[in-house]
């Protein structure tokens, strides 16, 4: 006759002695935290988000020609599909000089897409495009663009991505350029107080 196998007990934890146990020496015991009473005469500090001085309600006073336009990866791809010249179409849309800006993240995304998107990569490396360096880790362009327009309100975002558009609409004073009916259209920010539009 062989040995009978014992069934293993699952989720059995090794019992540890508490740091407040009476069997421990005084020096090994956990110290009971002493709560400090709040000083009523002390100045109370609280974090208040700083609103940019360039905004007049929803109207952004920092936007003006030449417009700096942050271009997303899919915007370049859709422009190629719609057979639109990026810089010329932007100027036709805004009736002013436009400087397309491309971040390192967007450039990294286009490079990752591979050989199929070599035309988009060649357009992105155009000398008319201004290259913006990224200091953060990773190459997720959506977070990078949202962070950039939150810090600096001087950009217009060019994108076709619905999720990115939804995130940018929550940031006041940042217009969006999108493609519809084979041309560029600008989505203006809501302003019901009658401030001039750019």
Automatic annotation (TrEMBL):
InterPro entries: Fcf1/UTP23, Fcf1_PIN, PIN-like_dom_sf, PIN_dom. The gene is Fcf1. It comes from Upupa epops (Eurasian hoopoe). The keyword Nucleus applies. GO terms for biological process: ribosomal small subunit biogenesis; rRNA processing. GO terms for cellular component: small-subunit processome. Part of the small subunit (SSU) processome, composed of more than 70 proteins and the RNA chaperone small nucleolar RNA (snoRNA) U3. This is rRNA-processing protein FCF1 homolog. Part of the small subunit (SSU) processome, first precursor of the small eukaryotic ribosomal subunit. During the assembly of the SSU processome in the nucleolus, many ribosome biogenesis factors, an RNA chaperone and ribosomal proteins associate with the nascent pre-rRNA and work in concert to generate RNA folding, modifications, rearrangements and cleavage as well as targeted degradation of pre-ribosomal RNA by the RNA exosome. Its main location: nucleus. The keyword Ribosomal protein does not apply. Keywords: Nucleus, Ribosome biogenesis, rRNA processing. PANTHER family: RRNA-PROCESSING PROTEIN UTP23 HOMOLOG (PTHR12416). It is found in: Nucleus, Nucleolus. Residues 67-166 form the PIN domain. Belongs to the UTP23/FCF1 family. FCF1 subfamily.
């Amino acid at each position: 006759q062989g040995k009978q196998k014992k069934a293993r007990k699952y989720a059995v934890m090794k019992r540890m002695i508490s740091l407040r146990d009476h069997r421990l020496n005084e020096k090994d015991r956990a110290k009971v935290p002493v709560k400090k009473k709040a000083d009523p005469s002390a100045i109370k500090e609280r974090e208040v988000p700083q609103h940019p001085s360039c905004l007049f309600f929803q109207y952004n006073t920092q936007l003006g020609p030449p417009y700096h336009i942050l271009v997303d990866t899919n915007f370049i791809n859709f422009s190629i599909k719609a057979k639109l010249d990026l810089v010329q179409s932007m100027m036709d849309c805004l009736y002013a000089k436009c400087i397309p800006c491309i971040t390192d993240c967007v450039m990294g995304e286009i490079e990752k897409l591979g050989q199929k998107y070599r035309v988009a990569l060649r357009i992105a490396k155009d000398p008319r495009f201004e290259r913006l360096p990224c200091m953060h880790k990773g190459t997720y362009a959506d977070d990078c663009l949202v962070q950039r327009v939150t810090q600096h309100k001087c950009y217009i975002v060019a994108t076709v991505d619905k999720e990115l558009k939804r995130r940018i609409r929550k940031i006041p004073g940042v217009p969006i350029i999108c493609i519809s009916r084979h041309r560029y259209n600008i989505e203006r920010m809501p302003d019901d107080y009658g401030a001039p539009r750019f």
